Amino acid sequence: MLAIGCDHGGYDLKLAVMKHLDERGMAYHDFGCDGSSCDYPVIAKTVAEAVASGEYERGLLFCGTGIGVSIVANKVPGIRAAACSDTFSATMTRAHNNANILCLGGRVVGPGLANLMVDAFLDTPFEGGRHQRRIDMITELDKR
What is the pTM of this model? Predict the structure, then answer.
């Protein structure tokens, strides 16, 4: 199950991705917003906490650039959120960084590319191995 959310800058892209998720038969919970002006830190924190708690396996966040929501999400211990704008980065953030939230910019990528990136993020497993040591280092930072 995915946790998803956006601010007004990412609203249209979120809707397009939700349609794609429906077509894939993927379950998700939409934490908002409804398209009206809102503060991205509120939505990003809510989604990040839902993922960090284990209630949701992964998350998708959307704002104008993907950067704002990624900054907020990464403040929550246990979250590895990545703002991506290409499929290679979306693939590698799962394979090497075990990212659990993908952040996309509604003013940066269109729906076609966003759907490809979401597929890459959802379908790519974490490789583990030598990358696990680095994830463990990140996890230690969360404990500070």
Answer: 0.97
